């Protein structure tokens, strides 16, 4: 059966190609998310409430999280580049989102609230 025969069981090649690309993108996003969570949980075993931080264009740049429970647990973030916020954190999630933006734009060395690289 050929594609132009009206075979309902066949998928157009361009649709299949796009589906492959979408699947590859989803897999890469999952790998990035798992790596970020693993990095955070290595130093904050009780980290929870991971929520995505996306730009207006839909690009994922980070996740916010809380490293503990209760009223004293403040918000931190981890970027898609596996940069983890340092210091006391933010009282509100929206503040943590805002502090993640410069780290995405400038990289590790230019974000003043990040600890110095280990090298």
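Sequence proposed for the structure above (119 residues):
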């Amino acid at each position: 059966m050929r594609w132009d025969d009206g075979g309902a069981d066949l998928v157009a090649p361009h649709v299949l190609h796009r589906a492959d690309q979408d699947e590859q993108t989803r897999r890469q996003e999952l790998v990035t998310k798992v790596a970020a969570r693993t990095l955070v949980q290595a130093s904050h075993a009780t980290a929870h409430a991971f929520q995505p931080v996306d730009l207006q264009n839909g690009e994922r740049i980070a996740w916010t999280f809380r490293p503990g429970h209760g009223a004293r647990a403040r918000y931190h973030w981890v970027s898609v580049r596996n940069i983890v916020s340092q210091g006391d954190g933010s009282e509100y999630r929206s503040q943590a989102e805002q502090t993640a933006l410069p780290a995405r734009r400038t990289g590790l060395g230019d974000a003043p609230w990040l600890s110095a690289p280990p090298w």
